[in-house]
Automatic annotation (TrEMBL):
Domain of life of the native organism: Eukaryota
Keywords: Extracellular matrix, Glycoprotein, Secreted, Signal
GO CC list: extracellular space
Domain Ig-like, chain residue ranges per copy: 221-304
Native source organism of the sequence: Neogobius melanostomus (round goby)
Coiled-coil region list: none
Any Pfam family matching the protein: Mucin2_WxxW
Subcellular location: Secreted, Extracellular space, Extracellular matrix
InterPro entries in UniProt: CILP-1/2_8th (IPR056257), CILP-1/2_b-sand_dom2 (IPR056256), CILP-1/2_C (IPR056258), CILP-1/2_dom (IPR056255), CILP1/CILP2 (IPR039675), Ig-like_dom (IPR007110), Ig-like_dom_sf (IPR036179), Ig-like_fold (IPR013783)
Gene3D superfamilies: Immunoglobulins (2.60.40.10)
UniProt-recorded name of the protein: Cartilage intermediate layer protein, nucleotide pyrophosphohydrolase
Region described as Disordered: spans on this chain: 1049-1102
PROSITE patterns: IG_LIKE (PS50835)
Length: 1102
């Protein structure tokens, strides 16, 4: 009790739901700013866990009153804090759910606050209670006045009973906070002060609950970049501002700015403002932040300064040849390609306001300012196409970036079902039953770090740094998870040793040795019971484990640079108490690395132990390893690198050395084996596995040292790799490429090298020793190649132009022209041809522009539609969809685009089967870009050859009849419909998927169409499931005119007579001022799993 002379101002209690070791309260003082000091918690202890309610009904209520009713006096009168977790041992702060906590009331979670179709998890709670109370001195103030009490405390350790005979040993007392005194019997916490204030009640009698806020953190957090400065374009005389945001504990206290690597004087804030810009101030700017917890540099931002009167872009479009239909060969150019032009994907100055901001309010990009319609003369018809004639500076198209994929076991592909996905310590999603996941990248994200947590505890927690396309669109990643080792029961009062090595027939690489009495609980108490111990080792001698490597093996050096590591093994530890299964920490763990596994002399001196920060994805140094000789039982004496570590919150460790011999490898991906510049594919994940130096030079050539992935852009990708300038074959690497889960094919190296196809001239190609994976065994996949990463010699002419670039030549690599040497991948295409009247590059969502005839009418929302057609024919046939405006006055009768796809045999019908099926894309009905009026797309499905329509899905036909107008279907050789507005489903033979990325939408819709279901997926065509149309086709008569020619012969009639109730006069549309760049999309999957050489260009040959 406090005397009547006290006056309570404000005391707000905050529950420690994050499991912190400190109680937290914000105390507001009347005199000046709030002032609260830290106070250690050695006089407090946690209760056992309580779970008195379940999340049924309105939610989960773990109320203190109910807990006391069931458990009587097991909770103190005034708990100081509470901690909450789910029954799956996920801390409340990591679930992503909205929860409430108050130590004096309890914990509760309401189902209605969790969003649609989601309920609260089942929670358990525990409370922090004092081991013994402490008196409160009288407040010196009189009633109605404000006073302050000071309380000084000395932290005393809890005595630990001695087990066994007394021996002289080093001090083993562990202090959660502070430091151990000379006698090893107390934890000294100096200058810790508790401040508080009280508010008067009616009789000025109240109880002051002393709670502390920890301003000092036990473990400092390394600095990491939250936001990099943004590149800008300005005109002379204008102002530019650059900002960097760096977080850490403690935060940085010094900022420095650099311009073209030169330090700028008197610029010590996290914001740099450059006024009255001149041409010489253009270049790169970056920030370096430093403080007690280290230093770090941001990525550089580029400043372009445009002279007065000069344009920030070139209005003349770049060349952009597109492939035309096979029967549209252009005699004037002697080519099947036609240049439609495109505007380069660059930023421009635009109309900027005078505000000084870190990020420009509006972003401007080079876009289409003017387009013209051209009529191309084909065989018997004219093909309309839009040609870019002028570029201008416009507002950039808003896009969204997405990463998606599957999380599966590295050993057998077992999916991580219903696992949690965390970012920055917050749960942002879950994996599906098949391990699938999709995550939208938050705006301003520079480095996407995700942690995958398995609820079933089959796999270790896996942190990945996932590349994504900052320009928008979706990128596919397959997350390989390492299976968790089954736990073994050990005694905490004995010495325990773990041998780590996963390669059969070879010595263990690493030993972990845990002395007795090294385990302690989360609250700091020494644990003396049995321990369930699981230690999982990733062995780099097994090349197949490379894809399961955690993070991206980078760390931040002393000067703030992000630098690479080379691994000698990773291990994940999980120690839990045998009685309550609570996580345990371990101190003074010894790590032994067999020096025989490290034969590079400089690595022996530089070997360090690292732990992974799961929020930044960066490795942080735990300590160095020292050489020591040690006997292993009766075996020979061996030499080990030995280090010490303590296992606390972080449970993933790495034995690594920094490596400074670095280069970049240039790789491009293409849509076909033509390897044309216009057919480059963006968004491909290209990965490189760095292998150990070859036998005789350094060490075992089968071991890997590093794994990196990069996304291809409009100019390919540059992959980091270790290299050597003295010996060409010192370092080797495997390179592979993946797009949407499909592996791309590398250029063949057998029976002989073809430099023109590979993309690298001789003799440099021979020095690099290029080999595709099937070089010596044609039964192996063709989807990767190996090279010697030989650092280029600046004195050798053929080596200075790629494909290997020195580390300081990253910009040269990224901006290298197409003529420069590079390695190549091509996509295994199916028989498909796409034509859009208004060109659009589906690899680059920012290339979308406004036009009534755009195939995709709305950016950031792409709707893919497919119809399934069954063919009875002795041959596989091509089927075309012809898509025109149907009901919108500005597009009626005008062509949106064409889609040609070849049918696929149903494997279930045997090799001699005459049944095949095809999933044909058509343009979905819906709003056009102005979002004012819908258009029912007029779709014609036209099989090649002499075909007759046998059957139309009954439900589809009924839907079309009930949703007028109805298209005329007098010609039994084809099928015509006004595409449905509704996303129907497999019962109709129509498959519709909407996604933020066009490629993803197509991939999902095709998977469902192949499977014949509305929610499944398949890469094998099932011709009897979910069919919309059935045709019977024979051999086409040689003299018969092409179907495409016949339907194009009278274009004016095509849009006027097929729709009942429409005017017979075709209307000209009003075009928007903009149009987009070109894209051709071919099949997103080859369901047969085999590459076919036939191309759609032969589909309509006469």
């Amino acid at each position: 009790e406090i005397s009547k002379a006290c006056s309570l101002r404000e005391c707000s209690l905050h529950a420690g739901v994050d499991g912190a070791r400190f109680l937290s309260v914000h105390v507001e003082m009347s005199m000046g700013a709030p002032s609260v000091n830290a106070f250690p918690l050695y006089n407090y202890e946690w209760t056992s866990w309580f779970n008195v309610d379940h999340p049924g009904g309105r939610g989960d209520y773990e109320q203190l009153e109910a807990i006391r009713f069931y458990y009587k006096s097991r909770v103190c009168a005034v708990p100081r804090a509470l901690e909450a977790r789910t029954t799956d041992w996920v801390p409340a702060r990591e679930t992503g759910e909205t929860v409430h906590a108050d130590p004096t009331v309890g914990f509760w979670c309401l189902n209605e606050e969790q969003g649609p179709e989601r309920n609260c998890s089942n929670y358990a709670v525990r409370f922090l209670c004092p081991k013994g109370g402490f008196a409160v001195n009288e407040c010196p103030a009189l009633c109605g006045q404000i006073g302050m009490q000071l309380r000084y405390r000395k932290c005393q350790s809890t005595s630990v009973p001695c087990i066994g005979s007394k021996v002289e040993a080093e001090c083993r007392l562990k202090c959660v906070m502070g430091h151990v005194n000379a006698d090893c019997d107390a934890c000294m916490c100096e200058n810790h002060m508790v401040l508080g204030s009280v508010r008067g009640q009616e009789d000025c009698l109240c109880l002051c609950v002393w709670v502390m806020e920890a301003l000092y953190h036990l473990f400092s957090e390394k600095l990491h970049v939250s936001s990099n400065p943004e590149s800008k374009i300005r005109r002379e005389g204008q102002t530019a501002a650059f900002c960097c945001k760096v977080a850490g504990t403690p935060p940085p206290d010094t900022y420095q700015w650099f311009h073209n690597n030169s330090l700028l004087e008197r610029q010590t804030e996290n914001t740099l403002v450059v006024k009255y810009l001149q041409a010489e101030q253009a270049g790169e700017y970056y920030c370096r932040a430093s403080g007690p917890s280290g230093a770090i540099k941001t990525k550089p931002a580029t400043l372009r300064v445009i002279g007065m009167g000069f344009s920030s872009l070139t209005p003349t479009p770049e060349s952009n040849p597109i492939r035309l239909p096979h029967d549209c060969f252009q005699n004037s150019t002697n080519s099947s390609y036609y240049d439609v032009g495109k505007c380069p994907p660059r930023t421009c100055a635009g109309q900027l306001d005078s505000g000084i901001r870190c990020k420009d309010k509006v972003s401007y990009c080079c876009g289409v300012a003017k387009m013209e319609e051209k009529q191309l003369q084909c065989q018997g018809y004219q093909l309309p196409t839009m040609v870019v004639t002028k570029c201008g500076c416009q507002k950039c198209v808003d896009t969204k970036s997405v990463v998606y994929g599957r999380a599966v076991a590295a050993d057998n592909g077992e999916p991580m079902r219903f696992g949690h996905i965390f970012m920055n310590g917050v749960r942002i999603g879950r994996s599906g039953y098949k391990g699938t996941f999709s995550v939208q990248v938050p705006p301003e994200t520079e480095r996407l770090v995700l942690t995958f947590v398995d609820n079933m505890q089959k796999f270790i927690n896996t942190t990945k740094v996932l590349p994504f396309n900052s320009k928008g669109g979706a990128v596919y990643h397959e997350i390989k998870l390492l299976r968790k080792k089954p736990p073994v029961i050990i005694s905490s009062i004995e010495t325990n040793t773990f041998e780590l090595g996963e390669v059969e027939g070879q010595e263990a690489m690493v030993q972990l040795q845990i002395p007795p009495h090294s385990f302690y609980t989360q609250s700091g108490e020494v644990y003396t019971g049995t321990v369930n111990a699981s230690v999982t080792f990733l062995d780099p001698r097994d090349v197949s484990t490379a894809a399961a490597a955690q993070s991206d093996l980078n760390f931040v050096g002393d000067e703030g640079d992000t630098l690479p590591l080379r691994t000698y093994g990773m291990f994940s530890v999980d120690f839990r108490s045998g009685d309550s299964n609570e996580p345990l920490n371990a101190g003074e763990v010894k790590v032994f690395l067999d020096s025989a596994q490290v034969t590079m002399p400089n690595h022996l001196d530089n070997m360090k132990l690292w732990s992974l920060n799961p929020e930044t994805g960066l490795w942080e140094e735990e300590g160095s390893l020292q050489m020591e000789r040690k006997k292993r039982g009766k075996r020979e004496e061996r030499t080990f690198l030995i280090g010490n570590m303590e296992i606390r919150e972080r449970r993933l460790f790495n034995l690594d050395v920094p490596e400074n011999r670095r280069c970049y490898v240039k790789v491009r991906a293409f849509r076909s084996e033509r390897f044309l510049p216009s057919e480059q594919v963006e968004g491909v994940v290209v990965s490189l596995i760095n292998m150990e130096p070859t036998a005789g030079f350094s060490t075992n050539p089968r071991a890997w040292g590093r794994f990196d992935s990069v996304i291809t852009g409009p100019n390919g990708a540059c992959l980091p790799a270790f290299c050597d300038d003295q010996k060409a074959d010192a370092y080797t690497a495997f390179v592979m490429a993946n797009l949407g889960g499909e592996e791309l094919e590398a250029v063949s190296s057998n029976p002989k090298l073809n430099p023109n196809l590979i993309g690298v001239p001789q003799p440099y190609l021979g020095k690099l020793n290029y080999k595709r994976t099937d070089h010596d065994d044609n039964r192996l996949k063709k989807t990767a190649f190996s090279i010697n990463v030989a650092k280029p010699s600046p004195n050798t002419a053929e080596e200075v132009n790629g494909p290997i670039y020195a580390f300081e030549g990253l910009k040269e690599c990224e901006e290298a022209p197409f003529s420069a040497a590079h390695f190549r991948f091509s996509r295994v295409e199916g028989d498909r041809y796409d034509y859009n009247t208004v060109p659009f590059n589906e690899d680059d969502p920012m290339s979308w522009t406004e036009d009534y005839l755009s195939w995709w009418p709305k950016p950031m929302e792409y709707r893919a539609c497919y119809i399934k057609v069954k063919i009875s024919s002795p041959h596989e046939l091509n089927v075309r969809s012809r898509n025109m405006g149907g009901t919108h006055p500005k597009t009626v009768g005008q062509l949106y685009g064409l889609r040609d796809t070849r049918s696929i045999r149903d494997r279930d019908h045997g090799l001699g089967s005459t049944v095949s099926a095809v999933c044909v894309e058509f343009k979905c009905s819906g709003m056009l870009y102005d979002q004012e009026r819908v258009d029912r797309t007029l779709v014609k499905i036209i099989p090649q050859g002499s075909c007759k329509r046998d059957h139309v899905n009954t439900m589809l036909q009924e839907y079309l009849v009930n949703h007028l107008p109805l298209a005329v279907n007098n010609d039994t050789n084809e099928f015509t419909m006004l595409a449905p507005l509704d996303p129907l489903g497999h019962n109709y033979g129509i498959y519709t998927v909407t996604d933020q990325d066009p490629r993803t939408a197509k991939e999902i819709a095709l998977g469902r169409c192949f499977d014949g279901t509305s929610d499944g997926t398949s890469r094998v065509m099932k011709s009897n499931e979910g069919v919309a149309l059935t045709f019977t086709c024979g051999d086409r008569e040689v003299t018969r005119q092409s179907v495409f020619q016949s339907i194009q012969g009278a274009q004016a009639q095509a849009g006027s007579s097929v729709v009942r109730g429409e005017s017979k006069q075709g209307r000209r549309r009003q075009r928007g001022s903009n149009a987009s760049r070109n894209s051709r999309r071919r099949s997103t999957r080859d369901p047969t799993g085999r590459r076919t050489k036939s191309q759609t260009v032969n589909a309509y040959a006469n």
